Amino acid sequence: MQMQHVVKYGNIVIEFTLQVSDRRTVAISVQPDCEVIVKAPKGANLLRVQELVHKRARWIQKQKQYFQQFFPRTPVRNYVGGETHLYLGRQYLIKLITADKPFLKLCGRHLIIQHPDVTSPHNIEKILYAWYKSRAEQLFRERFEFCFSNFSKKCAVEVPKLHIRKMKSRWGSYALSGRMTLNLELIKASIDCIDYVITHELCHTVHPNHGPGFYKLLKSVLPDYAIKKSKLEQSLA
Hints:
The protein is α/β, with parallel strands linked by helices. It has helices at about 45-55, 55-70, 120-150, 190-205, 210-220, 225-235; strands spanning about 1-10, 10-20, 25-30, 35-40, 85, 90-100, 105, 110-115, 160-165, 170-175, 180-185. The strands form 3 sheets. The protein has a 4-stranded mixed β-sheet with strand order 1-2-4-3, covered by helices on one side. The protein has a 4-stranded mixed β-sheet with strand order 5-6-8-7, with helices on one face. The protein has a 3-stranded mixed β-sheet with strand order 9-11-10, covered by helices on one side. Helix 3 packs across helix 4 and helix 4 packs across helix 6 (about 225-235). The longest helix is centred in the middle third of the chain and has 31 residues, at about 120-150. The radius of gyration is 21 Å and the shape is globular.
């Protein structure tokens, strides 16, 4: 059973999901999407739980700030001719051509988009993201196989099931069910940044949280992960 509750800490309101189950202690965690989850024993006093959340408020805010730095911050696009869009870390200029059938091709530093009605931003966005998805389906799986090959030399884990979709608040995620999800927006980043996100999520197959063990493993697999992390944040800011 789970319920939504709030705790006020100064001017900050902390919303949290309370999950009650057969357990002995109260555990507080912050998920990568910044959701605060509190697990408590059945019959736990709500006031006591709220006091514990209030006591950990500074830590909760610090965790949220940490995860927020990974949120995609791509500027709003208008999907018009002459606008630049990223693909694998490089900027490409949109060139629109009126034609009978919708089509996109990469030519030099241009994304040439054809459509019967090129005056509609919705049409241009739809074609562009269909192309992004097609490229991501192939490239992400290639990079996943490469990264998993390196990772499996350090840890013997089952191969996660890879899924790709557009996400609002994360570059990637890993569920205990064995499902790894990559944000379609990553197709805009360079390959080394994509590898960083995949490796980051692979480390969660061993360490669900971002504790010392997680970073020790990440650094052992990807020694320059901090550089790639910074590059990703700057390139898609």
